[in-house]
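Z., the sequence and structure:
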Amino acid sequence: MTEELFREDAYLTHCEARVVMVDGQSLFLDRTIFYPEGGGQPGDTGNLLLPDGSRINIINTRKDPEGRGICHVLEVEAIAPAEGDMVTAEIDWDRRHKHMRMHSCLHLLCSLVEGGVTGGSISQEKSRLDFDLQDTSLDKEFLTRELNRLIEEDHALASKWISDDELAQQPDLVRTMSVKPPSGEGRVRLMEVEGVDLQPCGGTHVRSTAEIGAVRVSKIENKGKHNRRINILFEGGISP
């Protein structure tokens, strides 16, 4: 299994790691800062600095379906390092940071909408959440104002861990309906926006809501009898 350094510190941009397995264009390290796609958040991209000073590109990161850890996907032309080599893993920080800002903003959106989350997607420019709602009127101007209020209030974000049993005793913490938080390993990671939101989440987040920057609800869509999709954008571009 891969040691997941990003779980404890989402601001790490590089780390030293050992290559433990190479399978075609799939490469596995003993430790990584690369986030694997999941929970609506894309997998990280970046590069590996090899012992000879050359670099190879990582074009995606995902969880291995065979349970071998986190898979770093190499570009097709890349010549993989040898098993046992020490490398430096470097993420595309600008891309990751935009995902962190977006993911954190979606937690704020959860705090404003009463309803289970049926789906979601995160990207650098825009993101969305789908909610299980019926006969509910949503106002995008109101949601935009409230999101920016919470952002400007500069609430701290931090993660903590609880046991599987503790989560089972607090089912209301789980907002997602289609994807349940991973359990069976003895503990579950919670993400808390101080005074605003608390729910299981394995994604990467900023340290404070002020870091998100101004946002706008661009569109609210009906996606079925019970499904309402809320789309958000960074206001005035993607820089904070």
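The mean pLDDT is 91. Residues 93-112 form the longest helix (20 residues).

Let me know what you think.
H.
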